[in-house]
Design goal:
The chain has seven helices and eight strands. By secondary structure, it is α+β, with helices and mostly antiparallel strands. Among the domains are: about 110 residues, Sandwich (Immunoglobulin-like); about 35 residues, no CATH class. The strands form two sheets. Strands 3, 4, 6, 7 and 8 form a five-stranded antiparallel beta sheet that branches. Strands 1-2-5 form a three-stranded antiparallel beta sheet, with no helix packed on it.
Length: about 240
């Protein structure tokens, strides 16, 4: 037997034992920069591509508020009282109404006439189209759909016709508005006796001692006034 064989066998055993004990220390050491660059990187794009490519329907959508239509396809005219001196009118004339006008007065009738607002004063009148107290004509632009009307008459009732006027002055009504009444421009001259009497009661409230009941206050005020108003009784007074 070769004498060096046992020593060679012992050296192999020592190398294996050293490798077993030193291998954990080798794995715990930090990776150097150069080594990190050479290490393969995981492909995140491939792993998460299915999650990122979301359907369009799942994304939040921006909802816009619906807009009111400019036309409703209905012949109409609305009149409003803006204040004691001004009215406001708006209207819509459909193509059907224009066709009816041209069929009745001729193909060139629409182009040879111009739009007019006829404002009727119908205060205290059951208006039938011919019995107004008076009226004024206002020429409006061809494409106008609303108009401010200065009447300068507080506490008066008005109605407005929208029509076409021929060169000879003939007026043809197309639309008629509702009736409106302008508000007063001053305080009402109507006086209420009961409200005046109650106002006098409140003026006397400051002279009543605190702690008194409502019936006592009413009786005290009645005594100072000399008599109770007709139709008004105190909770503590019974009428026979």
């Amino acid at each position: 037997m070769n004498v060096s064989f046992p020593w060679l066998f012992l050296a192999v055993i020592l190398v294996l034992v050293a490798g077993i004990f030193l291998w954990p220390l080798r794995r715990s050491q930090p990776v150097k920069k150069n080594e990190y660059k050479n290490m393969p990187h995981p492909s995140f794009k491939e792993e998460y591509s299915e999650e990122l490519n979301l359907p369009v329907s799942t994304l939040p959508q921006h909802r816009t508020e619906p807009e009111l239509p400019h036309h409703y396809g209905v012949d109409r005219m609305i009149l409003l009282a803006r204040d004691p001196h001004w009215l406001f009118a708006y209207w819509e004339i459909t193509a059907t109404k224009q066709d009816e006008f041209t069929k009745r007065y001729g193909p060139a009738a629409w182009s040879t006439t111009y739009p007019v607002l006829r404002v009727y004063d119908i205060t205290g009148v059951d208006f039938n189209g011919k019995n107004a107290l008076g009226y004024i004509d206002i020429h409006v632009s061809e494409n106008a759909e609303n108009w401010y009307v200065h009447v300068g008459e507080p506490d008066r009732s008005f109605c407005v016709d929208l029509g076409r006027m021929f060169p000879d002055g003939q007026f043809i009504t197309l639309l008629r508005s509702n009736t409106v009444t302008t508000p007063r421009s001053s305080l009402s001259d109507c006086l209420d006796e009961e409200w005046m009497w109650i106002e006098g009661l409140y003026r006397s409230m400051g002279r009543i001692q605190y702690g008194a009941s409502s019936s006592m206050i009413f009786d005290e005020l009645a005594l100072r006034a000399g008599a109770l108003p007709l139709g008004i009784s105190s909770p503590g007074i019974k009428h026979s």
